[in-house]
Specification:
- The protein is an alpha+beta fold.
- Among the domains are: 41 residues; 48 residues.
- It is 60% helix and 12% strand.
- It is built from two helices and five strands; from the N terminus they run H-E-E-E-E-E-H.
- The strands form two sheets. A three-stranded antiparallel sheet has the order 2-3-4, with no helix packed on it. The chain has a two-stranded antiparallel sheet with strand order 1-5.
- It is rod-shaped and about 135 Å long.
- It starts with a helix and ends with a helix.
- The structure holds zinc ion.
- Zinc ion binds next to loops.
Length: 128
């Protein structure tokens, strides 16, 4: 009587060679893989145990994955900021160089003008 009341228990069996589904023979002693056709003794059959998580583990796992994502996100943002800062620094450096160059050009042009003016002044003074 107890035999009929007991719930049947199903266990998934997987092929040790390819992970395919195994079909058991009537005596449950040998198995035949429906995917690759391998025959194996039941002793070698791997039993696929469904990984059961308690609700707490599920919640903890979720939080861990979330914080991991947040950490990655923060790291990515940090890197982006660093890159922006580096780009800005480089741009400032370029501008500074550009300014220094134009200052040099202005100094040269100013010097030439001064010399021309002095020559002009001498020439004018000599003509009088
Ligand atoms: Zn197989």
């Amino acid at each position: 009587m107890g035999l009929f009341k007991r719930k049947p228990k199903f266990i998934a069996a997987v092929c040790p060679q390819c992970g395919g589904n195994l079909e058991m023979d009537a005596q449950l002693q040998t198995a035949y893989c429906t995917k690759c056709g391998a025959h194996c003794l039941v002793e070698d059959v791997q039993i696929r145990k469904p990984r059961k998580e308690t609700p707490l583990q599920t919640v903890v796992g979720f939080i861990e994955r979330q914080s991991d994502l947040n950490r990655k996100d923060r790291a990515a943002r940090q890197q982006q900021r660093e890159e922006e800062r580096a780009a800005r620094r480089q741009q400032q450096e370029e501008e500074r160089k550009e300014k220094a160059k134009s200052a040099k050009v202005a100094a040269i042009v100013g010097g030439i003008l001064l010399v021309v003016l002095m020559i002009f002044a001498f020439v004018m003074a000599g003509l009088e």
